[in-house]
Amino acid sequence: MAKPGYGKRSAPDQLPRTNHDFAHLPPREAAIAAYIDRLPNGADISVKTLAKELPYGQCALRTALNNLTRAGHLRRGREHLAESGSQRWITRTWFTRTARDDDWWAAFTRGDVPQESPEPPSRPTRSRAYILLAALGRTTPALSLSHAACAELAPLLTEWFARGATDDQVLQSLTAGLPLPVHSPAALIRNRLTTKLPPEPVRDIPRPPLRVLECAKCGVPGRPETLPGGVCGPCRGEPAPRPSAPLTSSAVRTHAAAARAAMVDRRERPRL
């Protein structure tokens, strides 16, 4: 294991583990990725440590890790925990068995990770709201509902649960002071679920951590869009951008004089 706060960090929203997660990789990279995938968070996955555990040298491991970065399974960077109260940035190495493209890693850096759509269940399940509505008729026969009415009203009750309401609070709001007789149970329950909806709870929304990705080869930090495949432009063989030289004082005076002359010339033109 690495020092506390360092080591492997699992990226969120990974798909369930299968026997074919790394079949698209070369054999060496697939073996290393499968080994890292089964390590717990906080495990030391530096080149030196992996060389002691795997039958590969440090040079081969460094190349393989760079290949995993290009394939979207690995990113290196730094992270500052917004709620920690410290100004120190922590070195991070994020791993995901589910390969991600550059857009996903850019969203992850901003703390705005797109959610994976869950696979549909093999058979439909009844929600907590549906079960409570369906059981109303057992204790309060006047509020017996059909299957269609329970399914239609369940989303309204789900919002109650999302706002922290308990089953007892819901039952009290739906059954207290019923008129006699109840002509339309579904209409009455719809009205009460709508008009008696509790307020939204006041919650402190935690700020996402600040993250900066680094080049997999040279370690230079940069914005995600400047690190396609986790590698910076110079390491990909692109020429480094030339910095623009600042204007000299004489050049500034020349530009200012030209601007004033243009303004004077414009004022002296006759109007048509």
Which properties best describe this structure?
five-stranded mixed sheet; 5 strands; single chain; Arc Repressor Mutant, subunit A; alpha+beta; 272 residues; flat
Task: Explain the layout of strands and helices.
Elements lengths: L7 E3 L16 H11 L9 H7 L4 H13 L3 E7 L9 E6 L6 H8 L18 H12 L7 H16 L4 H9 L9 H11 L14 E5 L6 E2 L26 H20 L4
Parallel strand pairs: 1-3
Antiparallel strand pairs: 2-3, 2-4, 4-5
What does this structure look like?
By secondary structure, this protein is an alpha+beta fold. Among the domains are: 8-109, Orthogonal Bundle (Arc Repressor Mutant, subunit A), CATH 1.10.10; 128-195, no CATH class. Helices cover 39% and strands 8% of the residues. It is built from nine helices and five strands; from the N terminus they run βαααββαααααββα. The protein has helices at residues 27-37, 47-53, 58-70, 102-109, 128-139, 147-162, 167-175, 185-195, 249-268, and strands spanning 8-10, 74-80, 90-95, 210-214, 221-222. It is flat, with a radius of gyration of 31 Å.
What is the 3D form? Answer: flat
Q: Averaging pLDDT over every residue, what do you get?
A: 84
Order of secondary-structure elements = EHHHEEHHHHHEEH
User: Remind me, CATH topology of the domain at 8-109?
Assistant: Arc Repressor Mutant, subunit A
Q: How can the largest sheet be summarized? A: 5 strands, mixed
Low-confidence stretches: 117-122
Give the strand order of the largest sheet, numbering strands 1, 2, ... along the chain: 1-3-2-4-5
Describe, in short, the structure shown.
This protein has 272 residues and is α+β, with helices and mostly antiparallel strands.
